[in-house]
Amino acid sequence: MRFAVPHDHPCLAGHFPGCPLVPGVVVLERVLEAIEAECGRVGALCLPQVKFLRPLLPGQEAEVVLAGTAPRWRFEVRGAVGPLARGEIRIGGHD
Fold first, then answer.
1. Where are the beta strands (DSSP E) in the chain?
2. Any bridge partners for residue 52, and if so which?
């Protein structure tokens, strides 16, 4: 799933003045949207591992790439310069 966060998105106000960066929680929200597009509503999730490697800037395009199936996925968020974030996400309560 490809996405970009527009320059006027409310999450950018104050994050950070003069040098806006897309908050990590917004990036993870797009990962959840990609999972739900594939599987439907999944409920509570657990993030046992997440690493943010590079910042995502407003207006930059990124892509969520998923590997695996319910109840556990590995994900990578890729930008033009390479990986921005990667980790594991699983449906809560599953080991």
1. 2-4, 45-52, 61-69, 72-79, 82-91
2. 85
Could you report the per-residue pLDDT of 53-87, keeping only the tens digit for each? 999 999 999 999 999 999 999 999 999 999 999 99
In sequence order, what are the residues at sequence separation of 6 or more whose Cβ sits closer than 8 angstroms to the Cβ of residue 91? Answer: 42, 43, 44, 45, 46, 70, 71, 72
Euclidean distance between CA atoms 66 and 38, whole angstroms: 10
Residue 90: CB partners within 8 Å, gap ≥ 6? 45, 46, 48, 71, 72, 73
pLDDT value, residue 16? 87
pTM, rounded to two decimals: 0.92
Q: Does the domain at residues 2-91 carry the CATH identifier 2.120.10.30?
A: no
